Amino acid sequence: EIVKGVNGLDKVVLREVRGSSAEVYLYGGHVTSWKNDHEEELLFLSNKAMFKPPKAIRGGIPICFPQFGSHGTLEQHGFARNRFWSIDTDPPPFPANISHNAFVDLILKPSEEDAKIWPHSYEFRLRVALGPGGDLMLTSRIRNTNNDGKAFSFTFAYHTYFLVSDISEVRVEGLETLDYLDNLQEKERFTEQGDAITFESEVDKIYLSTPSKIAIIDHEKKRTFVLRKDGLPDAVVWNPWDKKAKAMSDFGDDEYKHMLCVEAAVVEKPITLKPGEEWKGRLELSAVPSSYCSGQ
Ligand code: TA6
What we know:
Blueprint: E1 2-4, E2 10-15, E3 21-25, E4 30-35, E5 63-64, E6 86-87, E7 102-108, H1 112-117, E8 122-130, E9 136-144, E10 152-158, E11 161-163, E12 170-173, E13 179-182, E14 188-191, E15 203-207, E16 213-218, E17 223-230, E18 234-239, H2 241-247, E19 259-273, E20 278-289
Antiparallel strand pairs: 1-2, 2-3, 3-4, 5-10, 6-7, 7-8, 8-9, 9-20, 10-19, 11-19, 12-16, 13-14, 13-15, 15-18, 16-17, 17-20, 18-19
The structure holds 6-O-phosphono-beta-D-tagatofuranose (TA6).
C-alpha cells in the first residue's frame, strides 16, 4: 500500500508472509529499506538523508540512469533518482518462473523538462519484489519509444548501500584478479590482486566484466550478502572513508564505518537501444548467515 513517508513523500511498503519487508519511495523509485524476517535492517540509510527533491536520498538503492558517473551534460548519476515515479498500472507480463510474493511495479517516463536535457523518449519500468526467502529483487526494463527512429545509449547502476557492522571487518569475494578502473586515479585501469577485498581507506573502483555473483561478508555480524545480477556486467565498489564522509552534508562523519556500496552496473560499455528495443537488468540480493557461506 502507498503511505506517507519522510517529509510526506509517498512510499510503498512491501511485506512478505514470513515477515521480511521493503520500502520504496515513489521519489526516485528508491528502495530505502529491506528487512529480513527478524526485522533487521539490511540496507544503509544515512541519518542525514534529506528526503527533499531534487536531492537524491542518501542510502538504500539509488537508481543511476541514464548515466552512471559525472561526465557530459547530465548531473552525476543521471536524473532517474531525482524524479517522481508512478505506479505502473499496466505492467507487461513477467516470466512466470520469477516467483515472488510481494511486489510493486513503478514506471518513469520523461517529462518535457527531461527531454530538454536528454532528448529521448523511453519507458523505464521497475519491479521491486520480495522473494519467498526474503530476497530483494529489482528488475529494470528500459524500452526506447522514440518515434523519430533514433537509437539512444545509456549507462546504469543499482547504487546499493549495504549496512555493515564495521567496514574494517568486511570482505568482498568474487572480484579477485579482475580489471578495474580506479576513480581515485583518473579512472586508470588496474588488475585486482588475488584474494578477497578488504577495506582500510577510501575505495572507488569500477570492476569490469564481473561474475553474476558477488559476496559481501560482514564478519562481525556473521552475515553474508549475496548479490546476483543479470544484464549488468560491471560492479562498482565504494566507501568514502573519513575525509569524503565529512565533505558530504547528507552523510554522518562516522557513517562510512557502517556502509559499503557494491553496485551492479553497466559502465564500461553503454547499452544502445534502437526504437522498440528493450534492455533488462536484474538484481537479486539475499542475506544469509555466514556460517555456511564463506568460501563458496
Ligand atoms: O558509486 C561511486 C560514486 O560514483 C562515487 O564516486 C561517489 O560520487 C558516489 O558515487 C556517490 O555519488 P552521489 O552523487 O550519490 O553523491
